[in-house]
Amino acid sequence: MLDINLVRENPEVVREALRKRQMDPSPVDAVLEVDTRRRAALSEVEALKAQRNATSTEISKMKDAAARQEKIDAMRELGERISRLDQAYKQMEAEQLAIVQIIPNIPHADVPLGMDDHDNPVIQVYGKPREFAFTPKPHWDLGPDLGIIDFEQGIKLTGSRFYVLSGAGARLQRALIAWMLDLHIRQGYTEKYTPFMVKSDVLLASGQLPKFKDNLYHDVEEDYWMVPTAEVPLTGIHMGDFIEEAALPFNYTAYTPCFRREKMSAGRDVRGIKRGHQFDKVEMYKYCRPEDSMAELQKMVQDAGQTCADLGLHYRMIQQCTGDLGFNGMIAYDLEVWAPGCGEWLEVSSISNVGDFQARRANIKYRPADGGKPRFVHTLNGSGLGLPRTLIAVLETYQQSDGSIQIPDVLKPWMGGIDRITK
RNA sequence: GGAGGGGUGGCCGAGCGGCCUAAGGCGCUUGUCUUGAAAACAAGUGUGGGGCAACCCACCGUGGGUUCGAAUCCCACCUCCUCCGCCA
After folding, report:
1. Residues 6 or more apart whose Cβ sits within 8 Å of residue A408
2. Which of these, A112, A117, A175, A219, could form a disulfide with A414 (CB 3.0-4.6 Å)?
């Protein structure tokens, strides 16, 4: 959420940010209009409250019963007026919040201009694609042939876009999760195991609500929401907290399943396990001082990249342009791994510096060591990495001419002594 | 699920209709003293908002209510602790 003072004092900056994102800038004017009305109402009701407070003190000191009663009668009417105005004020406040909450973050000056994901520049390409002496197969053929991915069983259990991993396939995914978590721990992150269902406050704090309600699963009975990413609970952990400056930065990593209704992507990527309603992910998350967040972003990009590199995958880093930048993000990079079987770059990580955007929503502050005013922390999040897609790249990259899959060296300790998946 | 007891500033903790403008302590900042540090002493120090400012308003788990006036009384909910019941 943006600072209302920023919108009020520099409305053109916010309008320009929306235009760069290929969005309509008119919410800015709507906010300014409500804000003006809201503050006028606030001044009015506060003046009345000041009067009430002063008179109440007077009443408490009055000895003469008749005069006292007269004052009390006069105040009764004032009380009713305050109550009506207060209600009107709350309405305006809610109206303003509703608009401010759907305005996205302001892109950092370093974010390249662009219309959509086609304009995302490729920053760097790492490694080379593996050379095959045969035609590499896509994972939707490899998996069922080896009996490690079963699409029919997933459909039987839940429906389309669900699948069952079996035997060495399930184990390989678990190996990836365990190995990634251990890698991030070595990189200095603290592992967290969090609830996979959260209250709506937490989704408001992390920026998923109210805007992305349609992409979330919600248990109406208990008002629990299934997390769409570990970013949500990792933001919520410190909701409302005051942090001492010396304690920063916090570096967290967590494995969670992620649940997404994917209404907006219905009909896309229907083949294979690339896009499902349930997938696994290992996430990295940082809380830091504002002046450190750009450097921390670079570190996180490296930490995520390390994951791809150690797995021996061919991958590239692209930067999200203004038209593709996520709602919360100020600046973001994506990592994509090459899947030689299906012949496409798969997004396995998106690493964002969201600045104080989530911290303001979540009210997460730190007290500067010099004793100055509390400030909002900056938060960053990045996948390290998204699972089914990493699994796809591993299966397709390490496939052999006989249809078997070699196990990448780093994962062998978790695979019970096997170095290859065969029929 | 049932019964009882709690949730107060960065932290601990008192207050249970109007001098609460929330005691006291810890922590923090500054000063005195000291070669320096510690200790001691003194002063300051909650958060958010409105106003050019003086100043004003709100906030004592959350939301309602009673009252001229609520941290304080009433109702609902959340949450923690103790006990009972039920269950992996």
Report:
1. A311, A312, A394, A398
2. A175
Among chain A residues 88-107, those with CB within 7 Å of any atom of strand B? 90
**CA to C1' distance (Å), from A219 to B66:** 36
How far apart, in Å, do the first and last CA atoms of chain A sit?
52
The mean pLDDT value of chain A amounts to 92
Confidence at residue A274, expressed as pLDDT on a 0 to 100 scale: 92
Strand B and A56 CB separated by under 7 Å:
yes
Residues of chain A with pLDDT > 70, as a percent, come to: 99
Q: Mean of the pLDDT values across residues A96-115? A: 93
ipTM over 0.85: no
Same domain assignment for residues A121 and A256: yes
In Å, what is the separation between the CA of A207 and the C1' of B11?
A: 30
Distance of A44 CA from B18 C1′ (whole Å): 25
Residues A84, A175: one domain?
A: no
What's the total number of domains in chain A? 2
- Give domain status of residue A106, yes or no: no
A127: domain CATH number? 3.30.930.10
- For strand B, is any atom closer than 7 Å to the CB of A135? no
Domain that holds residue A187: 117-421
Point out the residue nearest to B10 (C-alpha to C1'): A242
On whether both A78 and A127 belong to a single domain, the answer is no
Distance CA A333, CA A317 (A): 7
* A80 CA: nearest nucleotide by C1': B68
Residues A79, A124 within the same domain: no
Distance CA A349, CA A281 (A): 10
- The pLDDT assigned to A74 comes to 82
Q: Give per-residue pLDDT as tens, A61-79.
A: 777 777 888 888 888 888 8
- The structure tokens listed for A114 are 């662009």
